[in-house]
Amino acid sequence: MEGGGGGKMGYGGHHHHHDTAKLLKAVSRTVEPRNFGIGLVAGFLIVTCAYFSTAKFDAIHIALVSPDARNAAAGIGTPVSAAKASNQRLDDLAAPDLEDALSKLGSKAEVLDKDDDGKILPSPETDSGQSASLGNTRKDDTFASGGGGGALLPPLSSEEPANSTQEQGGLEDEELQVQDAIANSPKKSNNGSSSPAVFHSDPATLPVPPVQQIPPAQQQETRASPVQQIPLIPEAKQTGPEQSAAPWREWKPLCDLASNRRIDWCELDGDVRVHGVQGTVTLVGAAKAEEWRVKPYPRKVDTNAMRFVREITVRSTTDAGAIGPEAACTERRDVPALLFSDRGYTGNYFHAYTDVILPLFLTAKQYGGEVLFLVSDFQMWWLGKFLPVFKSLSNYDLVDLAADNRTRCFRHVQVGLTCHSDFSIDPRRAPNGYSMVDFTKFMRTTYGLPRDLAVPAPNARPRLLIIARARTRRFVNADEIVHAAKKIGFEVVVSEGTHEIAPFAEEANSCDAMLGVHGAGLTNMVFLPTRGVVIQVVPLGGLEFVAGYFRSPSRDMGLEYFEYRIARNESTLTDQYPPDHPIFTDPDGVKSKGWDSLKEAYLDKQDVRLDMRRFRPVLKKAIAHIRANKLQ
Question: Is pTM, for the whole model, over 0.70?
Fold first, then answer.
């Protein structure tokens, strides 16, 4: 069976080959060999073309889905691919497009994004933590959280460290800082984060000037960001008629009413015209017309102090003819001018210094006498009192602005004086790095005082000046204090001072230490020699905060400071009120009724009776400090 089966299979195969042979023979008879060869060649060519076409398409497809492209599509890039892509994009940009791109890039790096309402919002990249490099390279702005984001304030000067000391992040009064903190407590947005507003404050750090705003009229003239950007690819210098135009000058507002809680001030450069009787300061030929109204005295939040300060109109115009023929210059000056008020609280000796004399030094000293003072509220008695100071700072006579019916023209005018905080200078923000030590040296030079260091002469006793107040906060037992001081080793001088500054300045400079109850008389510490001693006696009533007006300034002047806070038995209030009276048991309640209540209770009705057993150690520390100076 197996053999038969094999025979059948073998027979079938033979029959198949026989049929194939018959078919080939039939085809060979029908198709000529020459035509058959041509068909084979044609078929080969068609197959070859189809093959190469398919291979080329595959190559293109492979290039499109290369690893770099796949990574880019997935949001993953390599340094090489990123550089190639960046270079390709920059090569594709024309020169104006490149400037525009850099401008936009710089704007993102320098300022916060704004929404449609002009509010300044945090950068989404910064908030999400995906742009650490951008966050680290941003300038240190000063932020004050507020309800609705404020507008970005342009800087007042392009050279903040040298000429402007109103930059953001500055030292202000402690009381103003507390008020500001309460008023500007952060308000959370819908996403749980507060929206900070850029606030050009008072530079206590010396800020880097923020990006300035470009006025709409000039935005079409340039696409570059106000902050100079460095192109990624150097651009070739082009010459031609379009390059001969005058350089574009960036606009900034004339006045700053926001960055300093103490004073509004303005700075004008160019063709500046001042008309005293009209109380106007006008910048002619400006890029933009503006008008501001300011009172140039550093107590702007105190309505009582500002009510008698004259208001000055500061403006700019693009057309000289628009201000009338009376604005034609009757006198031109090449020196700058400073316009300020001598009204307010200047009748108080302390306020005379902290509101005018010290700010005037801070603003005018840098000019070396080549500056003109325009006084908007001319008080002859007061100006005469401090005339040596004015003569030391200016080589020119004071101008009574309200009585001046001429148009004086200047190249530079500042309305309002530079000031930091009460009786204080922040050297980091001051022109030429001025400090309170420089101010005291200036005052000693102005009044011709000989002693710069508190080092007593050989075999001489250190001198103690006791400020004897005549009406309030007096030393009831002054004789006992004098006796104890002499017993310790002081030579004692008791004086209240007179209207004339020079004689009392000489008396103070001859002493090594000064003792007084809190009050304006302690302002005379400016005449003490460096390394002298100041002892401030603080009355009852929780008045440590007002003591700060002399605490920090004395140390900034290079003086040793001692603060003595009296006990209840050292106050004459015990002679006027019973022990359980609120003036003793609830001083905070008395102060909560306002400044007038505090002043009447603790400053106007209180005298001091020092307990010498308690106070004597302070005198010993003071004389030990002075004697140590002698040994150095």
Answer: no
CA 331 distance to own-chain centroid: 36
Tell me the C-alpha distance between 561 and 514, whole Å: 10
DSSP state of 337: E
Interatomic CA distance for residues 506 and 388, integer angstroms: 14
Q: Could you tell me which of 437, 485, 477 has the C-alpha nearest to residue 461?
A: 485
- Do residues 355 and 297 make contact, with C-beta atoms less than 8 angstroms apart? yes
> For the chain, what is the total number of helices (H) and then of strands (E)?
22, 19
Q: Which among 413, 404, 296 is positioned nearest to 346, based on CA atoms?
A: 296
Nearest CA to 364 out of 440, 430, 299 is that of 430
**What six digits make up the tokens of 377?**
């509220």
For residue 471, what pLDDT band results from cuts at 50, 70 and 90? confident
Q: Which of 347, 353, 342 is nearest to 416 (CA)?
A: 342
Contact 539, 517 (CB under 8 A): yes
Which contiguous run of DSSP H or E holds residue 623?
Answer: helix 612-631
Mean pLDDT of 325-353: 91
Q: Pick the range with the lowest mean pLDDT from 239-248, 268-277, 573-582.
A: 239-248
User: By three-state DSSP, how is residue 249 classified?
Assistant: coil
d(CA 91, CA 94): 8
- Residues 537, 608 contacting (CB under 8 angstroms): yes
Are the beta carbons of 517 and 469 closer than 8 angstroms? Answer: yes
Do 178 and 246 form a contact (C-beta atoms < 8 A)? no
Give Cα separations from 526 to 51, 438, 534 (angstroms).
Answer: 99, 11, 11
Output the CA angle 217-219-224, nearest 5 degrees. 155
CA 385 vs CA 348, 349, 376, 380, 419: distances in Å: 12, 11, 17, 8, 22
Three-class SS state of 160: helix
d(CA 35, CA 271): 102
CA neighbor of 223 nearest in space, from 95, 111, 110: 95
